[in-house]
């Protein structure tokens, strides 16, 4: 599976239909703002009922995902930044 990156929100909106084509074909699109990934566009579930174990191998934990937030980051989160 490839991962495509839209480096700005302007680029994302300019190429939206093309990016949707990538997603429809099983690719992931990362939306980056000010150098940080802010969103991930992935294909919607097919609508079938989930079966225990369906997502096995699809969840990725990035290094440091469990690192505690600083007080500043926590405050920024609650303030909507």
Give a description of the structure.
By secondary structure, the chain is an alpha+beta fold. It has a domain at 1-44: YefM-like fold. It is 28% helix and 20% strand. It has three helices and three strands. Strands 1-2-3 form a three-stranded mixed beta sheet. Strand 2 (28-33) and strand 3 form a beta hairpin.
Q: What radius of gyration results from the CA coordinates?
A: 16 Å
Count of beta strands: 3
Structural class: alpha+beta
CATH class of the domain at 1-44: Alpha Beta
Assembly type of the shown chains? single chain
Helix proportion range: 25-40%
Stated plainly, the CATH topology of the domain at 1-44 is called: YefM-like fold
Described by the principal axes of the CA atoms, the overall outline is extended
Low-confidence stretches: none
Number of helices: 3
Percentage of residues in strands: 15-25%
- Rounded mean pLDDT is 81
- Going across the biggest sheet, name each strand in turn: 1-2-3
Give the H and E element order: EHHEEH
Major beta sheet, specifics? 3 strands, mixed
Q: How many angstroms separate the termini?
A: 31 Å
Mind telling me which CATH architecture of the domain at 1-44 this is?
3-Layer(aba) Sandwich
Topology, please?
Blueprint: E1 3-6, H1 9-14, H2 16-24, E2 28-33, E3 36-41, H3 71-78
Parallel strand pairs: 1-2
Antiparallel strand pairs: 2-3
């Amino acid at each position: 599976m490839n991962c495509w990156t839209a480096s700005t929100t302007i680029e994302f909106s300019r190429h939206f239909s093309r990016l949707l084509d990538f997603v429809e074909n099983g690719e992931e699109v990362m939306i980056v703002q000010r150098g940080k990934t802010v969103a991930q566009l992935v294909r919607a579930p097919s609508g079938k009922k989930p079966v225990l174990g369906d997502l096995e191998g699809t969840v990725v934990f990035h290094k440091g995902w469990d690192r505690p937030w600083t007080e500043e980051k926590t405050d920024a989160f609650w303030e909507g930044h």
